[in-house]
Write a structure and sequence with these properties.
With 251 residues, the chain is α/β, with parallel strands linked by helices. The chain is built from 8 helices and 12 strands.
C-alpha cells in the first residue's frame, strides 16, 4: 500500500490540491493528514471540506496546534502562530469546528504512528528539530507502543528523516525529493514530512511524502503549484502580508 502523508496545509487550498493530485499520480491508495489544516492561509473552509471528504473515504487524520487554536482562539495574541486563529475560527461553520475539535492527537496503524509534533507530550506541541528531540519522540513511542517502527509528523515545516543506528544512537538524514529511501522494519524511524502549505526552506514548492508499506520505502516529494495565487488570496482576505511574503519566498 502507498500511504500519502500530508501535514501543515495551513489553509492553502492551492498547495493541498496540487499535492493530492501529485499523490494520485504516484499511486497513493490511502491518505494521512498530520495536522494544521488551518492557520496562516486564506482558505481554511475549503481545506477542511476537502479533509472531511478524504476522511469519509478512509483517510487518517490527527490534530495540529493551529487546528486547536482555530477551535478556541486565545483572547490575547502573543505569537505569530496565534495571529490568524480568530480569523480562521470566523471562516469555519459549527460542523467544521466540531470536526477539528474532535481530532485525535495520535493515531496508530500497525507499525505506524502519526503525530503532529512529538510523541513525548503531543499536547505540548514540541518541535522535532534535531536528534535530541527526535530521540525523545521515538523513546516515548517505544515505551507506549513497542510494535511501532515508524513515527511520522510535521510541525517543523522541514523534511528530515531520523533513524536509530547500530549503536542505538540516532542518525539524521536529509532526503532528496523524489528518491525512495529504504526504511527496513528492524530499525526505528522518525520522519518530519514537511509542510504542504507553508514551506520554510527558501523553496516555495509544497512538501509531502509517500510511504510504500510493501516495499518499505519512504519518498519525500516537492510539488510546484501557483503559490503566487495562494499569496494573493492571503492579501485579498486582509490577513498579514507576512504570510503571503513567506509563501512567495519559501521561508
Amino acid at each position: 500500500m502507498k500511504l500519502a502523508l500530508l501535514s501543515d496545509i495551513h489553509g492553502n487550498i492551492q498547495a493541498f490540491e496540487a499535492c493530492l493530485a501529485h499523490a494520485r499520480s504516484q499511486g497513493a491508495q490511502q491518505y494521512a493528514l498530520l495536522g494544521d489544516l488551518v492557520g496562516y492561509g486564506a482558505d481554511p473552509a475549503a481545506v477542511v471540506n476537502t479533509a472531511q471528504a478524504l476522511v469519509a473515504q478512509g483517510a487518517l487524520i490527527i490534530k495540529g496546534n493551529h487546528d486547536a487554536l482555530a477551535v478556541a482562539p486565545p483572547s490575547e495574541v502573543r505569537t505569530v502562530g496565534e495571529s490568524t486563529a480568530a480569523w480562521s475560527h470566523s471562516q469555519l461553520d459549527a460542523g467544521q469546528l466540531r470536526f477539528l475539535d474532535e481530532l485525535p492527537l495520535l493515531y496508530q496503524q500497525e507499525a505506524i504512528l502519526l503525530v503532529h509534533a512529538s510523541v513525548d507530550g503531543p499536547e505540548l506541541w514540541r518541535y522535532v528539530y534535531d536528534q535530541r528531540a527526535a530521540s525523545a519522540s521515538l523513546d516515548a513511542a517505544a515505551a507506549a507502543l513497542p510494535e511501532v517502527r515508524y513515527v511520522f509528523g510535521g510541525h517543523v515545516h522541514l523534511q528530515t528523516l531520523y533513524y536509530r543506528g547500530v549503536d542505538a544512537g540516532l542518525m539524521k538524514f536529509m532526503p532528496t525529493p523524489g528518491v525512495a529511501v529504504p526504511v527496513p522494519k528492524h530499525r526505528h524511524w522518525l520522519a518530519t514530512i514537511g509542510s504542504v502549505g507553508q514551506p520554510r526552506d527558501s523553496n516555495p514548492q509544497a512538501m509531502y511524502a509517500v510511504f510504500d508499506t510493501d516495499k518499505l520505502q519512504l519518498t519525500f516529494h516537492r510539488v510546484s503549484y501557483d503559490h503566487h495565487a495562494a499569496a494573493a488570496a492571503i492579501r485579498k482576505a486582509g490577513l498579514p502580508a507576512f504570510f503571503a511574503d513567506r509563501l512567495e519566498q519559501g521561508r
